[in-house]
Amino acid sequence: MNALEAKFLTVLRFIQEQGSVEQTRIARALGFSLMTINKIVNTLVRSGIIVKYGKTSGGSGRRSDLFRFNPELFISIGADINEDRIIISAVRSDGSIIANKEYTLDKARHKSLTSGDITRLIERNYHQFTEDFMLDRGKIAVIGIAPEGIIDSENGRCLLGTHLGGIIDLNLKYELQEILHLPTFIDDPARSVAYYESKYGDGINTKNFIYMYLGKGVGSGIIIDGKIYRGFRGIAGEIGHIIIDKNGSRCKCGNYGCLETIASEESIIRQVKEGIGEGVFTKIIDYCHGEIEKISLKVLKKAADDNDKFSHNILEHVGNQLGKAVSLLINIFNPELVLIGGMVAILGDYLLDSVKRVIKNETLNIMNEKTEIRISNYNENKDSTGIAIEAFDALFRDANKESRNFIDTLFKKILHRHM
Questions:
Q1: Would the pLDDT of 126 be above 80?
Q2: 204-375, superfamily in CATH?
Q3: Is 193 helix (H, G, I), strand (E, B) or coil?
Q4: 26-56: per-residue pLDDT in tens?
Q5: Strand (E) or helix (H) holding 227
Q6: 3-state secondary structure of 16
Q7: Taking the model in full, what pTM does it have?
Q8: Which residue has the higher pLDDT, 219 or 107?
Q9: What is the Cα 30 distance to its own chain's centre?
Q10: Where in the chain is the domain with CATH 1.10.10.10?
Q11: Angle, nearest 10°, between helix axes 265-277 and 297-305?
Q12: Helix 23-30, helix 3-18: angle, nearest 10
């Protein structure tokens, strides 16, 4: 790539990161002259790579045009996968959703998933999804995968599929690129949703926040100065595997008493079933019509709403343990905001009240007074949407072979005709 192309790429990258931006801001941020930016932007507009997107608001002077990446140019695919199902999303570069669909896995057939099973399942459902929604595969620029486990995002490896059949050290990125012939990006669901929240959701315009992911597993996405903190090996944020109770239940990671054994969706339901098995009286039985296997978080919440003492005790216990973990994060990272999300977040204030009470007692006053704690709106498609958005942005951010090939294709097919 020559110097001129490098400037174009730098501008493109900045526009994609910002979502929409005016020329003067691009010039200031990148240190280019306004004349240079004007030429680059005009070329990108003529080529169809970027488009005008309204004007700046406020102020008494003349309003400037805003520009963004052309959302019709490419499609990004995201897949959130665990041992029960795959949820796939197709999104545009502006984060708008084209399609979502859940594909349930046959538990009898896939009782013990192997590495080969995982890649074949993703491949088969990817092709099914594109056919179901008649997507133009020529527009698909990248696929992002969010497996529920411990993920080395830097190298695209699933180190431990704690909720994916227990697979160990699967080079998912390499395997899928070989099969699908697409740039592939791998990340943990908690970090992917944190990325989504930072760019389009409850964390927008917040530079330092933590997203607590409470689903089939428990994790966190840590945003520092507007960027995901990944740590040395790209696996930072595994808050679900801090030990809360050494005498607690065994976790899928091999330890005992991890937060995940208390605050994940299946752990909460397990605690409810254990109590019922011990003969505890609870209205939960009525709400699941006596069918224990139908107990869910929604059933638990209904019983709590009906002032069921057992339900309140379960939720208070979970909230107290979660509050201990959140307190640790606040004392270490001093975030502006902590978002509690994932399926478990539907329990709302039943968790939040206990979490806030523990935080007040276990963090420095100067920190807990300034840190906001909120429940993030639950959406079952957030994980797959988040990884799709993160994957597309990674094409511009990363310097690997696949990203370079994408950029080269972008310039060869579109940009060179106008330069």
A1: yes
A2: ATPase, nucleotide binding domain (3.30.420.40)
A3: helix
A4: 999 999 999 999 999 998 998 888 999 888 8
A5: strand 227-228
A6: helix
A7: 0.89
A8: 219
A9: 28
A10: 3-70
A11: 60
A12: 120
| Model pLDDT for residues 383-393, shown as the tens digit of each residue | 999 999 999 99
Residues sharing a CB contact under 8 Å with residue 232, sequence separation 6 or more, in sequence order: none
- Topology of 75-192+381-413 in CATH? Nucleotidyltransferase; domain 5 (3.30.420)
DSSP secondary structure of 229-245? ---SSS-TT-GGGSBS-
Asked whether residue 410 carries a pLDDT value surpassing 80, the answer given is: no
Beta-carbon neighbour count of residue 262 at 10 Å? Answer: 25
What gap in Å lies between CA 240 and CA 12, rounded to an integer?
Answer: 37
Which tokens is 14 given? 């900045």
- Phi and psi torsions of 322, nearest 5°: -65, -40
The closest of 228, 152, 244, 154 to 195, measured between CA atoms, is: 228
**Which of 45, 1, 26, 47 lies closest to 415 in space, CA to CA?**
47
The phi, psi pair for 209, rounded to 5°, reads -150, 165
Q: What are the residues whose beta carbons fall under 8 Å from the beta carbon of 129, sequence distance 6 or more?
A: 77, 88, 90, 99, 101, 103, 135
Coil/strand/helix, residue 356: helix
Q: For residue 6, what pLDDT is reported?
A: 80
pLDDT digits (tens, 9 = 90+) for 66-82: 999 999 989 999 999 98
Amino acid 20: pLDDT: 87
Longest CA pairwise span in the chain (Å): 76
